[in-house]
Amino acid sequence: MTGPTDSSAVPDIFPHRREDAGIARDFADAHPPLSPDAAIVEAHRCYFCFDAPCTAACPTGIDVPGFIRGIATGNLRGAAVKILEENIFGGSCARVCPTEILCERACVRTAEEERPVAIGALQRRATDWLMARNHHPFVAAPASGRRIAVVGAGPAGLACAHRLARAGHCVEVFEARAKPGGLNEYGIAAYKLPDDFARHEIEFLLAIGNITITTGKALGVDLTLADLRSAYDAVFLGLGLAGVNALGIEERPLFGVEDAVSFIARLRQTQDKTEIPIGRRVVVIGGGNTAIDAATQARLLGAEEVSIVYRRGPAQMSATGDEQKWAQTHGVTIRHFATPVRVIGEAGAVRGVVFARTRRDDRGAVVMSGGEFTLGADQVFKAVGQRFVLPETEGFPVIENGRIAVDAARRTSLPGVYAGGDCVAGLDLTVRAVQDGKIAAAAIDAALTGQKEHAHG
Q: Sign (positive/negative) of CA torsion 83, 213, 387, 277?
């Protein structure tokens, strides 16, 4: 993006808005781990329910009471294996999974008007213990002689790859970006997965063997699906969401206006956070976790005024209640029932955003309620959702409602081609992507061990 054309209109966007020590402290681990003693005390709060509702609420089906019992009895290795058996990304999910709306919401203690067992923190205790010992708990089966291509090295693709590698298959993963990890590496607030955790977790996963990752290879540019289907016994597509939605209003390039996902990715890849330029007044448009992450990190970098503006109410925000409170605790103002109608620019730089007030009608639809207001801004981050970008127009699986159509086994319309993660319909969560990868891997393995012909034939 080019800068402003008039030097007098340069926005108030600068690095080093805070002291280095303050930024380093605030971008450290958002939720420090439980101490060994605290973990045991917390584990003993679990009722160890039969047919536990927390397990049913986990998209990957982790045996929650089973792993918590392991912690309570001092068997941390056994606890970690129970978690990783169902979710090889159990370490990152313990940090980023919205447990407050999944397993912890289902905890029976909430029915007694008590706080739920801290399942996420306990999961982290077990997985961190095992990963710190650099001991991979699984062993690959004898080599099957089958080769599978996985496109996309995010949680869905790597979970699929790990399961297939355990089954003895050779897996080659192709990733468009410079590093593997997908959302964990590029799309989550730096304070949620600090200390290069995403990379360490992938190194742990790759210890199973049978997996190679090639970066800088994008489908539709460096690879074609037809070639992959010809060269491999099966293909899994974990493509994620490469596109970002527009605001739905007239937009012209302005210095200081950026997609929130790009801002977050840049933050994730910058070691010295003080070097990131940030505005004095920042406006974030959107209501999901991306908006929360962008706004909170803007505040931590030293922005004086940060506002999230969302067209519906707090209950309709896709960001959880805990995430909303987190942002507000850090000084972010959340304004509801307003939608952008015009971005104000001067000499090529952003100066503010005009919003129209909205309301929900009797059917729940968003309608204009009358009246406008303006928020001055040096920097505007757009966080109004992401979308799937079709990498190829010929010979690609069927698309429904903007995403790849799959059946219950994550099979696409093309024989031998499977898909999962954010590129298919469903909750856009790391834990759900992992489950997609698991399900697809089981289907691929069943197909390959049950037939001798090439998967695409």
A: positive
CATH architecture type of domain 147-242+389-450 = 3-Layer(bba) Sandwich (3.50)
Phi, psi of 217 (to 5 degrees): -125, 110
Q: Write down the H helix ranges in 30-114.
A: 36-43, 53-57, 64-72, 76-86, 90-96, 103-106
Instruction: pLDDT band for 196, please (50, 70, 90 cuts).
Output: very high
Cα separation, 421 vs 156, whole angstroms:
5
CA 135 to chain centre: 26
Beta strand residue intervals within 143-292, DSSP E: 147-151, 170-175, 211-215, 234-237, 243-244, 257-259, 278-279, 281-285
Q: How far is CA 111 from CA 58, 104, 118, 213, 235, in A?
A: 18, 11, 15, 46, 45
Q: Which fold has domain 36-132?
A: Fumarate Reductase Iron-sulfur Protein; Chain B, domain 2 (1.10.1060)
> Residue 302: left if φ>0, alpha if ψ -120 to 50, beta else—which one?
left
* Cβ atoms 170, 143 nearer than 8 A: yes
Return the pLDDT at 2. Answer: 53
Over the stretch 348-385, which tens digit does the pLDDT of each residue have? 999 999 999 999 998 989 999 989 999 999 999 999 99
Total Cβ atoms within 10 A of residue 231: 14
Give CATH 3.50.50.60 domain extents, the chain: 7-28+246-386, 147-242+389-450
Tell me which CATH code domain 7-28+246-386 carries. 3.50.50.60
